[in-house]
Design brief:
Oligomer: single chain
Number of helices: 3
Shape: globular
Order of helices and strands: EEEEHEEHEEH
Strand order of the largest sheet: 4-3-2-1-5
Largest sheet: 5 strands, antiparallel
Distance between the termini: 17 Å
Helix content: 10-25%
């Protein structure tokens, strides 16, 4: 953990593969930012992720877990969520839910670290495709740096 980073809250997220493999991840959230930071504790050790909003930290963890064949069972891994500059400015811990059929925001806000059933979450690529469909933007292939 970088010197001077205070961790204020701890949450747990289940990572699963849909075939019975699951692991509970301990997540410590930084109390200040940007940059924001999450510290992840798992059976294999610990690691940290940093970004200008919590959802960036979570996206980096999501990508790493997917490379291990696991999906994060949390609201931040749903394919029907999106952020805004206002939510990002407040730390990016909450995101809007949208209706994929109508491409309209539902008015619901979710905490990205709150639990979600495995059936409701998506791979990083599925989540990315859903965002571009919702926004009407063309995906030009840019990827978040590690």
């Amino acid at each position: 953990m970088p010197r001077g980073t205070l961790m204020s809250e701890r949450v747990s997220i289940v990572a699963a593969d849909g075939r019975g493999r699951r692991e509970v991840l301990g997540i410590a959230l930084s109390s200040t930012g940007p940059p924001f930071r999450i510290e992840v504790t798992r059976r294999s050790g610990s690691s940290g992720y940093e970004g200008n909003a919590y959802f960036i930290c979570l996206a980096k963890l999501q990508r790493d877990m997917y490379e291990e064949g696991l999906l994060l069972c949390c609201q931040g891994s749903r394919p029907d969520i999106t952020s805004s500059s206002m939510l990002k400015a407040s730390g990016g811990r909450e995101m809007y839910v949208f209706d994929p059929g109508t491409r309209e925001l539902t008015g619901e806000l979710v905490d990205i670290f709150a639990p979600a059933p495995y059936e409701a979450v998506a791979t990083p690529d599925e989540q990315r495709a859903a965002f571009f469909t919702f926004s009407g933007l063309k995906d030009r292939g840019w990827r978040m740096p590690r």
